[in-house]
Amino acid sequence: MPAPTESPWADEDAHPVASDFTPSSSAFTKLSALIPDENKLRYSTAADLAINIEVKVECLESKTGCYMLVTGVAEHMVEEIDEALQGLGIHKVSRFTYEQTTETLIVRLMPGAPHEHVLWSFSNRITLKVINIPGHSVSSLDPVGATRFRVLCQRSKKRAMQASNRVLKRPDALRLECWKMMTDTNQRASRNTTPWIPGCSQYFDIDHAVTVAPAGRGLVIPYRTLFDTSQLGDPDIIVSAGELSEWALRIYRDFE
C-alpha cells in the first residue's frame, strides 16, 4: 500500500509512542485527506485496532510504509493502543500523531529492517561523536525506550531536535531532515507562553553516487538539544559532509 505524498515532517519521535505535540489542524486535515479509504477505521477497542495494524505491518517488509486514520479515539485511549501494540511486539514500527479536537489518530506504519538499519546506523555515529566530548561516555545517550518525561508547565522539551530519514527497499537516494520546535510567527504569544511549531532546520539529499547536497555542509546538532546541562561551553555535535557520504555509502552497499 503506497504511502500518501506528504510535506516533510519529523519522524514524530525517536520512540514509537504518540508525539507530545499536536500538529496544526490544517496540516492534520491535509494529511488525513491523502489516506486511502481502505486505511480509515472507526475505533472500537485497542485490541481490535492492534490486530488491524498487525495485518498492515506484515505487508510492509519491502515497501515504504503506510498511514492509517482512526476516528473516535479519546485521548486516554492512546496509551491503551500503545500497550496493545507492545503486546503484539509491533509498537516499534508505528508512529502516532493525535488531533485532540477531533479525537482522531493518524498511525504511520514503518517497514521493518530497512528503516531500522538506517536509523540505528546513523544513531551509532551520533553516539560516537558524543563519546569523544570530554566528560561524556558510552552511557551518555543510554536509551529509555518508550518512556515519556513531562516537565512542569511544558508539554515537551521545546528545543529538542529530531532526525528523520526515508528509505525504500533498494533506495536510489537518501534524505535526512532535521526538525526542531520553532517559534510560530503566525500566532500571537501570550504573557506566559510562546507558540511553537515543528520546522525543518536542516536537510541533506544523498544520491547513489554519495554526493551530498547542499554541498559543503555538515549536520550540526546543538549540544543543548541532547543534554539539559552545560558541558565545557556546550560543544555542538557535528557530522561532516564527508561523514554523511561515508554513512550513505554503507547503507547503499547493504541494500545491494
CA-based gyration radius: 19 Å
What global shape is seen? globular
Count of separate DSSP helical elements: 5
Main β sheet profile:
4 strands, mixed
Weakly predicted, low-confidence segments: 1-23, 151-159
Q: In total, how many domains does the architecture comprise? A: 2
What structural class results from the helix and strand content? alpha+beta
- Spatial gap, N to C terminus: 23 Å
Please tell me the overall pLDDT: 75
Question: How would you write the strand order of the largest sheet?
Answer: 1-2-4-3
Q: Give the total of beta strands.
A: 10
Tell me the helix content. 25-40%
- Strand percentage, roughly? 15-25%
Could you spell the SSE succession in H and E letters? HEHEHEEHEEEEEEH
What is the secondary structure topology, with strand pairs?
Elements: H1 25-33, E1 40-42, H2 46-57, E2 66-71, H3 77-88, E3 94-99, E4 104-109, H4 113-131, E5 161-166, E6 173-183, E7 196-207, E8 212-213, E9 219-221, E10 237-239, H5 241-255
